[in-house]
Amino acid sequence: MVLHTNNCRLDYHPHIHALVPGGAINIVRKYSKKLKGKYLSRYLYRGVISEKKIIANKTGLVTFTYVDSNSGKTESRTLSGANFLRLVLQHVLSRGFRRIRDYGFLHGNAKKLLSLVQLILQVILIEVKSRPRPAFKWPCCKRAMNILEFRNVKSRSG
């Protein structure tokens, strides 16, 4: 479940998005009914507003765009800087709350259970090949440098 605290206009609108499995794992019998659900990542891994949605910040007024949920059209809203900050800051988590918490077969310590779910659902995992790092090039001839060593030099304070 994801607690979402704002609507598209950044107004305070607390509500919950939930992923409800259509089955469950029986540890004794090792079977499950297939699971169905919604994709929640877009609610988990983003801030209240992205920088690209802020289109103007002039004379103490902030203008941002949003998609109206009723019409589906892109609209804009202009607020004083103080009111814009108030709207953004009301969505900051209170002390003691955690942004993300995994549970069940999604928990980091549940690798065996996740493997069982993937086996039952006949999930085929595709190996992701790592991309090669871009080469450091010499400024004069543009040929790739042969890197022998990287050093992490930490500055000492005081």
Give a structural overview:
- With 158 residues, this protein is of the alpha+beta class.
- Helix content is 15%, strand content 19%.
- The chain contains 3 helices and 5 strands, in the order ββαβββαα.
- The chain has helices at 41-44, 81-89, 111-120; strands at 2-6, 12-17, 54-58, 61-67, 74-80.
- It has a 3-stranded antiparallel sheet.
- The radius of gyration is 24 Å and the shape is extended.
- The two termini are 47 Å apart.
- The mean pLDDT is 78.
> Could you give a short account of the major beta sheet?
3 strands, antiparallel
Helix content: 10-25%
Q: Radius of gyration in whole Å, from Cα? A: 24 Å
> Strand-and-helix sequence, N→C?
EEHEEEHH
Total strands: the figure is 5
Instruction: State the secondary-structure class.
Output: alpha+beta
* Shape designation: extended
Number of helices: 3
Q: What is the averaged pLDDT score?
A: 78
Spatial separation of the terminal alpha carbons: 47 Å
Strand content: 15-25%
Largest beta sheet: strand ordering: 3-4-5
Which key phrases capture this entry?
3-stranded antiparallel β-sheet, two-stranded antiparallel ribbon, 19% strand, alpha+beta, 15% helix, 158 residues, single chain, 3 helices
Fold blueprint:
Layout: E1 2-6, E2 12-17, H1 41-44, E3 54-58, E4 61-67, E5 74-80, H2 81-89, H3 111-120
Antiparallel strand pairs: 1-2, 3-4, 4-5
Nutshell version of this structure?
Helices cover 15% and strands 19% of the residues. The chain has 158 residues and is of the alpha+beta class.
